[in-house]
Every structure is written in structure tokens, then in C-alpha cells.
Prior knowledge:
Elements: E1 8-17, E2 27-37, E3 43-53, H1 63-69, E4 80-81, H2 83-100, E5 105-110, H3 113-126, E6 134-141, H4 142-150, H5 155-162, H6 174-194, H7 197-207
Parallel strand pairs: 1-5, 3-4, 5-6
Antiparallel strand pairs: 1-2, 2-3
Helix pairs in contact: 4-5, 4-6, 5-6
Amino acid sequence: xAERFRGYLPVVIDVETAGFNSRTDALLExxxxxxxxxxxxYLIIDQSFMAEVEPFEGANLEKAALDFTGIDPYDPNRESIxxxxxxxxxxxxxxxxxxxxGCKRAILVGHNASxxxxxxxxxxxxxDIKRNPFHPFSTFDTATLAGLAYGxxxxxxACDVAGIPFDGRLAHSALYDTEKTAxxxxxxxxxxxxxxxxxxxxxxxxxx
Length: 208
């Protein structure tokens, strides 16, 4: 795994938020899926983690965003925890996975990854977390990869073309979207392997 992505461990992230501005709008849910590799060199899902998050003090809550996700930040049935606890709850197993795979850092995989990366980075900064496991700016964006591989950039449509079941009723749950994004990412990487793309890369490296 460490050799496949230049020492970085791909970790799939999805966030549900109360708006589009990572500095001012609340983070409400965050989920992560770590990946591993089987004996044949295929990328597979390893573990999933999820946290419901209390809006940070002074956070903006856009009604349109809440209507879209269907999340009530103050629902008594939500098992929400303070943002700093949520980030550590997500970061701790990621750090462990990075170490287990002999990687130097995690790299965020997301559908429109810059959005998720921005909220993760902002939450880590607000929480004064010094050991953010993710690369500070590089990401893998499945919207772009799916556009290349399947001609679709919307998650549900890309999953449909890829043969991945997708239930629209469960969409906009961080955990569900993360797991589907992980399936999509693994599928694209593994398809490239099956087409001989990775063997070609290795052959070129050996030639050099």
C-alpha cells in the first residue's frame, strides 16, 4: 500500500455541514473509511468511523443547508459530541492505519474533495489539533476520477454506471456517502489495475 500512492494512505472522508464556508459554518457529521490492499494488490475497504458533531460556538447554521441534509443540529436523539472530540475520534484510527501500512501520511479521498478537506482542516485548526494526519493540500477527488472512468461526476450516477448500489434515501448521511465514495474509488483504482495500467507504470519504473 505504501508503494502504491507514494507513501500516502488514501482515507475516504465525507462531511455534512450547515453551509459551504468551512470557517464560519458548522460541521455536523464526519465519517471516514480507511482502505487496505488484498494479497492480489486490489484496494478494498478496511474500517469505517463516524461522529455526529455539536456546532462549534458561534457557528453559522444556514437553513437551506439544514433543509438539504435533513439534519437538526439540536435533535435530542443525535449522539453529538464537541468538535474537538469528534476530530480526535476520527483522527486516532487514521493515524493508526497510516502507521500500520508504513505510510508517512494520509491523503483525503472525497467526492468534490476540496469541500471535505476544507472543513476537516478548519475543524482541526479550531480544535488546535497539531497532528492532523492528512496532507495539507493534496487530495484525490472521486468526482474527477469518475468523470474520467465513467463519464459521470454526480456520486449517485457514477455509482450507477459503476454497478454500485446506491439508495438515494440514505444519501446525505456522512457514513453512507463515505462508504459509497470508498467503493467508487476502489472500483476505479482496481479497474485501472485490471486494464494493465498499473503494470505499465511498474514496467516503466523498472525500465528507468
